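Section 3.1 - Work completed
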Amino acid sequence: MKVSYWIVTSILQEEAVKMQAALISKFIKIAGCCLKLYNYNTLMELLTGLNHNCISRLKNAWALVPDKYHKRFERMQEIMSPQSNYIHYRQVSYLLFIFSIAHLFSI
């Protein structure tokens, strides 16, 4: 929970809306890197921080975040959604497992 509160604090400390939007974009980009590195714990911390009530109410800042980051954020939220017992997360994990097994046998 420390990471998620650090994200909230970092964004809210900025008074300029453009800087808040830049930080939101940066944290979404970092979350994407965590997903690529299979670091799901930190990914969940980042998503929790960005979904915090104080951050989600920053409508002006979110409006300045580029669409590609909005789409990435929505996709990561979908993957880490607790609906149906984290079915999307389990599917991604299973596919990565199959890919790694196939990669081992191709060497």
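Second construct:
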Amino acid sequence: MAENMHELAPHHLPPFIPAADGGDWLFTVMLVVLILGGILVGVFYLHLHSIPERLAHKHGRMQFELVAVLGLLALFTHNNIFWVAALLLAFIQLPDFWTPLESMAHSLSRLAGTGGVSSETLVEHDLEQEDQELEAGMSASDEPPPTPADHSTASTAEQENKHV
């Protein structure tokens, strides 16, 4: 083959020049590197976007769901402010507003004389009373409005027992 080569042709070709059979090993290597690199960048991007959700797992369910929604909005809209808001919300422990409100509602229901019964039970009880009144022939408009109770005649001991 050396006798068919032109005298000005280089005798040694660098390895990155493809062979005459069409096999280009450098192209194949770069294709594999680019595909793997793209997959790794995508995995890193999704891992980075899941940081607020993983941090919010230790907080309550409502806060976790809010952080998850903000993370999804940031992922699909490419607005980084949503991701920053989700990250800040994941780091901050929201105060528990529900427990004091529940305690106040329970105390008020005890003061009202319902004994801490749920509102659904009270509504069912009111509906049953209305049904009984309609069956007895009385309508709600026939009844006189209830008068306020006179608390001045009750003894202080009775009033204290009502509040306990």
